[in-house]
Amino acid sequence: MLKRYSLLWRLALVLVVVAVTTMVVGTRITGALRNDAQRLNQHAVAVMQGYAAAAEQAWRTGGQAGVDQWLADMENRETGDIAVISATDQSLSSAPLTQQQRAGLHFQRGVHSRMSFRYGKKMPYLGVPFPAVPDQGSLLMQLPPRLRPGTYWPLIENLLLVGMPTLSALLLGGLLFWRARVPLTALQAQVLGFKDDTQARVTGPLATRSDEFGELARSFNHMAEQVCGMLDTQRQLLNDMSHELRTPLSRLSVALESQMSEAELRQRVEQELHHMRTLVDDTLALGWQDTETGTTDLESLSLPALWDMIVENAAFESGWDKRRFPCALPDNALVYGNLNVLAQVFENLVRNAIRYSPEQGAVQLLGQREGGAWHLQVVDQGPGVPDDKLYAIFAPFVRLDVARAGHTGFGLGLSIARRGVERLGGELWAHNREPGLCVHLRLPAPPRV
């Protein structure tokens, strides 16, 4: 979902600003160059003013005959219509003005006026007053093709139409590349550094940015924390497992060196092998949950039916009567989860409760629906645990022998249960009762029908 400060909005804003700026600047530059291209250059102005001065001189020295002679000379020098007219728009030569010349007289331009590009190959008429006595006459002449301004304007205009957007795109691309490369380079450095130092984290402004780069940096930090936690857990698990295995192995070494009978030795070996097999199975289950990335085959499960299945096995293993496992849930209590995972969770919780329950104790399942989840409680009648250890009991290989002395186990059951519940998107915690321990589970429930 796009956020208020998403990088998309910033890029869109930059693109809009660049596009509008390019259009405005391009229009102004094109307009300014176009206006300049429509005006005669200094050389052309000087040529036209020189012709006007020559026509004036011919009129002042030779009159009508002088103008005729000058016009005859000009026909050999320039193409197009040429006429010398009076202040009353009458021809100063012996030839009257033609209809075309009179039409040009009405649309004549000055030497400093802008020339239109719409004339095509037809040259515009220029009116140039006599320089000395402008009130006596002027030169009316079609602009010579060689003096026409803007000859290369179509090429320049096309270059501007293509060049301005291209230049803007290159500048924008370079800016965006630079802006994106800085945080990406910083992220890359942290990722590469994480290989050698697992404490490497993205810090500074990059980690607090409100756009996608900031989210990526925070996601990397979160991932790094999880990886470090998994590595620490695995190292602790390996250390604890090696310690737990060393004890039965030491007892086996002592038994082999002792004077025990063959039957006693076989019994001891069988006991220690069962001890180690249980440890390995529980450790593998815990390690499998650490490496599992998701839970498949999720379905709606009946909690009373699941509890009946758990009670059946628990009663057989412990010798308890099934009536010592009451369930206070309605028959339509459903949760959304995986059958195998939930069965393992409840088996570990019930076995743990049985292990620390007094004679004739009971293990009860309570719960109520809270919104989109079921809040369940597995309650025993044992001695409970110290309040400051309520969180620690869910860590691997934690055994509170002071509170619950005389009981065996590796301290993996509650850890396996908690990770199973978390994989299903739930929560698991505990608190003491009077008497007993109450383990809470919050599991997602399917929508109400």
Describe this structure as you would to a colleague.
The chain has 449 residues and is an alpha+beta fold. The chain has four domains: 7-34 and 154-193, no CATH class; 39-149, Two-component histidine kinase, sensor domain (Beta-Lactamase, 2-Layer Sandwich); 212-291, no CATH class; 299-444, Histidine kinase-like ATPase, C-terminal domain (Heat Shock Protein 90, 2-Layer Sandwich). The chain is built from ten helices and nine strands. It has helices at 7-37, 42-75, 99-106, 153-196, 205-208, 212-257, 262-291, 303-318, 339-355, 413-423, and strands at 82-85, 125-129, 138-142, 299-302, 334-337, 364-370, 373-379, 427-432, 437-444. A hairpin with a 2-residue loop joins strand 6 (364-370) and strand 7. Helix 1 (7-37) packs antiparallel against helix 4. The protein is rod-shaped. The relative contact order is 0.07.
What's a quick, concise take on this entry?
The chain has 10 helices and 9 strands. The longest helix is centred in the middle third of the chain and has 46 residues. 54% of the residues lie in helices and 11% in strands.
Secondary-structure map with pairings?
Elements: H1 7-37, H2 42-75, E1 82-85, H3 99-106, E2 125-129, E3 138-142, H4 153-196, H5 205-208, H6 212-257, H7 262-291, E4 299-302, H8 303-318, E5 334-337, H9 339-355, E6 364-370, E7 373-379, H10 413-423, E8 427-432, E9 437-444
Antiparallel strand pairs: 1-3, 2-3, 4-5, 6-7, 7-9, 8-9
Assess the beta-strand content as a share of residues. Answer: 5-15%
- What is the arithmetic mean of pLDDT? 82
By CATH, the architecture of the largest domain is named 2-Layer Sandwich
Topology, number of strands: 9
